[in-house]
Amino acid sequence: MSRSKASAIKEKETKSQILTTIAEVTGLKKKEVQSVLAAVRDHAVRHLNARGSGEFSVPEVGIKLRRVKKPARKAGMAKNPFTGEMVKVEARPASLSVRASALKGLKDLVAG
């Protein structure tokens, strides 16, 4: 399968369909593909947890995951930027979240 001339997939695929396709392309068994993807996920979690590096990239997939800190929010009133009306907002403690972004290579392949 060529990287730049790959045909578009028009329907959303299930996890099983994705595993089957990867298994066929690589010659691995579905269980082996699933194990590899689980290992990648576990490795990403180790980078993204509170004491990890905070960043994890998978160049072959074209994504970068980053840990982001969301600050605490006080309860009170805030302006809705779309309507201009004042709305009540609830207090929220500080938290950690994960943000995904596409790497340049993936953006170029999709746009190209």
- What gross morphology would you assign? elongated
* N→C terminal distance: 17 Å
Total strands: the figure is 5
The biggest beta sheet, please? 3 strands, antiparallel
| Number of helical stretches of at least 4 residues | 3
Strand content: 25-35%
- Estimated radius of gyration: 20 Å
Low-pLDDT parts are: none
**Spatial strand arrangement across the major sheet:** 1-2-5
What is the share of helical residues? 25-40%
Q: Structural class from helices and strands? A: alpha+beta
Q: How are helices and strands ordered from N to C?
A: HHEEEEEH
Mean pLDDT: 91
Task: Summarize the model shown.
The chain is of the alpha+beta class and 112 residues long. The chain has 3 helices and 5 strands.
Summary keywords:
112 residues, alpha+beta, three-stranded antiparallel sheet, two-stranded antiparallel sheet, elongated
Describe the structure.
- The protein is an alpha+beta fold.
- 35% of the residues lie in helices and 25% in strands.
- It is built from 3 helices and 5 strands; from the N terminus they run ααβββββα.
- The protein has helices at 15-26, 30-48, 104-111; strands at residues 55-58, 63-70, 76-79, 86-89, 95-102.
- A 3-stranded antiparallel beta sheet has the order 1-2-5. The chain has a two-stranded antiparallel sheet with strand order 3-4.
- The longest helix has 19 residues, at 30-48.
- The protein is elongated and about 60 Å long.
Q: What is the topological layout?
A:
Layout: H1 15-26, H2 30-48, E1 55-58, E2 63-70, E3 76-79, E4 86-89, E5 95-102, H3 104-111
Antiparallel strand pairs: 1-2, 2-5, 3-4
Helix pairs in contact: 1-2
